[in-house]
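Encode chain A's predicted structure.
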Amino acid sequence: MPGYLDQYGAGDEQRESLVKRAIATVVLVIVIGGLGYYLFKNHSQEKIGKQFISLVRSQSYPAAYQLWGCSEAKPCSGYEYDKFLEDWGAKASGADPAVLGIEDSESCGTGVILTMAVNRSRQEKLWIEKSNPVLSFSPVPACPGKSPFSIMIHRTVGKLRKPFLK
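Encoded structure for chain A:
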């Protein structure tokens, strides 16, 4: 005949295991979610950069110039279409289609800094405002005011973003 206290504590081990699994699952979801957010938070700006690269590679310079918010009929002040062709066109100092690509993407305040390899000897930092998807040259070479921890995260975990930039 079983006693009254024979089953005392029998469910504790099972409950403890269930709590450990739940905590591990929540931590895993937070880590994967945070990593996913970090990898894809600049996706729409990177997409504009990829579209620009595609247009330059196909030598559709007027369409590429429009991504800068300019046109041949209404050029940007300070960045005429001829200067655009010098920077990105088929001229000697222009872009090399074999090299042209996004190398890095860094969120910075209200915009994103894209580091573009233009040719073998030149890199450009481009700026895309998050609210207005227009390309321009970056006003700063690197995002000012970032903490050393965020710089470290960008330099280490940011390398995981590289395959998504191609």
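The chain has two domains: 11-40, 42-165.
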